[in-house]
Amino acid sequence: MPKGVGKVVAQNKKAYHDYFIEETYEAGIVLQGTEIKSIRAGKVNLKDAYARIQNGEAILFGMHVSPYEQGNIFNHDPLRTRKLLLHKREINKLLGETKEAGYALVPLKLYLKNGFCKVLIGLAKGKKNYDKRESLKQKEAKREIERAFRDRQKM
């Protein structure tokens, strides 16, 4: 199955607005206790999440996984840091890329693939305000073209 394909649980749409996505990587994620049950229920937020390479490991910060409702004392901290599972060569490549100015690791999607939770990480370069405005103009123009084409089809 190609990367990024599976039952999408959460998406970070803001990342596509704020960044140019250069490359994407599929990473597994280390979860504790009832976190997977909360994720399967869709109680996860990637909005303010980011990843970093520390001590040769990829770490995900700021991903909010709500505590599981039926859980008791075994519930987890919602904002704890989580380790990402990547190959060593991918980690080394990402470490070299993020040392360059302007590059960041941003989670784009959280999805279930073959029963496992996966995160699609994007190597991203920040957009300036004029780039964001240009992206919005292109999106609006595309929407107008599709709308006109659809109206033409109805006739």
Automatic annotation (TrEMBL):
<dbReference type="InterPro" id="IPR023620">
    <property type="entry name" value="SmpB"/>
</dbReference>
<comment type="similarity">
    <text>Belongs to the SmpB family.</text>
</comment>
<dbReference type="GO" id="GO:0005829">
    <property type="term" value="C:cytosol"/>
</dbReference>
<dbReference type="GO" id="GO:0070930">
    <property type="term" value="P:trans-translation-dependent protein tagging"/>
</dbReference>
<keyword id="KW-0694">RNA-binding</keyword>
<keyword id="KW-0963">Cytoplasm</keyword>
<dbReference type="InterPro" id="IPR000037">
    <property type="entry name" value="SsrA-bd_prot"/>
</dbReference>
<feature type="region of interest" description="Disordered">
    <location>
        <begin position="133"/>
        <end position="155"/>
    </location>
</feature>
<dbReference type="GO" id="GO:0003723">
    <property type="term" value="F:RNA binding"/>
</dbReference>
<dbReference type="GO" id="GO:0070929">
    <property type="term" value="P:trans-translation"/>
</dbReference>
<comment type="function">
    <text>Required for rescue of stalled ribosomes mediated by trans-translation. Binds to transfer-messenger RNA (tmRNA), required for stable association of tmRNA with ribosomes. tmRNA and SmpB together mimic tRNA shape, replacing the anticodon stem-loop with SmpB. tmRNA is encoded by the ssrA gene; the 2 termini fold to resemble tRNA(Ala) and it encodes a 'tag peptide', a short internal open reading frame. During trans-translation Ala-aminoacylated tmRNA acts like a tRNA, entering the A-site of stalled ribosomes, displacing the stalled mRNA.</text>
</comment>
<dbReference type="InterPro" id="IPR020081">
    <property type="entry name" value="SsrA-bd_prot_CS"/>
</dbReference>
<protein>
    <recommendedName>
        <fullName>SsrA-binding protein</fullName>
    </recommendedName>
</protein>
<dbReference type="Pfam" id="PF01668">
    <property type="entry name" value="SmpB"/>
</dbReference>
